[in-house]
Every structure is written in C-alpha cells, then in structure tokens.
Amino acid sequence: MIRYAITSRALYLGSEQEKQAALLAEASRWIANRIDYIQIREKDLPAASLTAIARKLLQTINLTASPTRLLINSRPDIALATNAHGVHLSSSPDALTPAQVRDLYISANQPSPHITTSCHTLEDVQRARTENVDAILFAPVFEKPLPNQQILPGQGLDQLRAACLAAAPVPIYALGGVTLKNIPSCLEAGATGIAGIRLFHRSPEHLS
C-alpha cells in the first residue's frame, strides 16, 4: 500500500515560525517511517519559505537514505530549484498541465519529474491517464468536514472503483475522509494507496 502524506501547517498552533517548525518535525517523522510520498501543500507561503522547507526535508531524506519522494504542490519552479522529486498538480482549468511541467524540466536540462494530480470526476481521471501522470489522487472518497462546519459529501466506494478502472494502468490513491478503519475498503475497491492530511497527522506509525 502506497502512503501519500500531505502537509498542512494549519493543524499546528503558535506563530508562523512555530507552525513551520512543527511541520518540519512531523514531516521528518514521516520520512523516518518511510512514508512513500510527502506533498508540500502550503500554497500561501512565499517562495523563499517553501524553498527552505523543501531543502530541509530533502536533506533529511538524503541523510537517512529514506525512499520518501518529496513533491511540491503546483510549483515546478521550486521543485526544480530544490531538486525535489516532482510536483503535484490540481485539476482546475487554470492549473499547469503535466506537459507544461515536463517542458519546463526539458528547458532546464533536467529529467522528467514525478507528477501526481488531483481528480474529482471520471472525466478528470480519463484526462489524467492520457496525460501520463504517475499517480492520481481521487477525492473525496468519503465525506469530510469543512472549515465552515459544513460537510463535503463523499463520492463513495463505487465511484472510487470506477475511477480505478478508468485510470488503469495509472495508480489511484484514495483521498478525502480516509481513516484507519476504511483503508481496507479503499484497497478492495482497487486503490493502490491512500492519501491524506489528518490521516497522517501524529500517526504515521499506524500506517506501515
């Protein structure tokens, strides 16, 4: 089972500096637990802060010989500058495409990066498959609470199963409302792995 952890410093208390320090500490524990992927998803941070976080985590990965791959959300420029393993792209109409990201790497004389993308519909999944991404995060599988106390409905296991069939041979990682209890159901539906923010918060040792 592939484990794909996504950062969110909003989970931590304190000043901005303290939140970034807590993020680094927790992500370092993920690396120690050999989590397969870490996506830095801190869209509001300035480039300098994102770059510093990425470099520190990559240093930890290299020093510990961990197999963890570090991906930067929507910022191939930072992924290139830090030698991160790749990028994660959204499915929004104005997002960079995998082809555009690969062209940036070609222009920089760098090998093609690892690319994952978010998908929310079967149409998204089919498009991502034709774009030859390395993996798809399909979401939300289960309902999840929103900051405004509303609930985002989940698409359900049947839709996850359909997404896995539509994506093949590209692997699908289930995202959205995934818990320790429903992980087996996601795998039975065809998911190759699981992804999450709160799922990995303070509990990577339970996801071996």
Automatic annotation (TrEMBL):
Keyword Nuclease: no
Keywords, in A-Z order: Thiamine biosynthesis, Transferase
Domain Thiamine phosphate synthase/TenI: 17-198
GO BP term, example: thiamine biosynthetic process
Top-level EC class as recorded in UniProt: transferase
Pathways involved: Cofactor biosynthesis; thiamine diphosphate biosynthesis
EC number: 2.5.1.3
GO molecular function: thiamine-phosphate diphosphorylase activity
UniProt GO cellular component terms: cytoplasm
Pfam family membership, one: TMP-TENI
InterPro entries in the cross-refs: Aldolase_TIM, ThiamineP_synth_sf, ThiamineP_synth_TenI
Protein name in UniProt: Thiamine-phosphate pyrophosphorylase
Lineage start: Bacteria, Pseudomonadati, Acidobacteriota, Terriglobia, Terriglobales
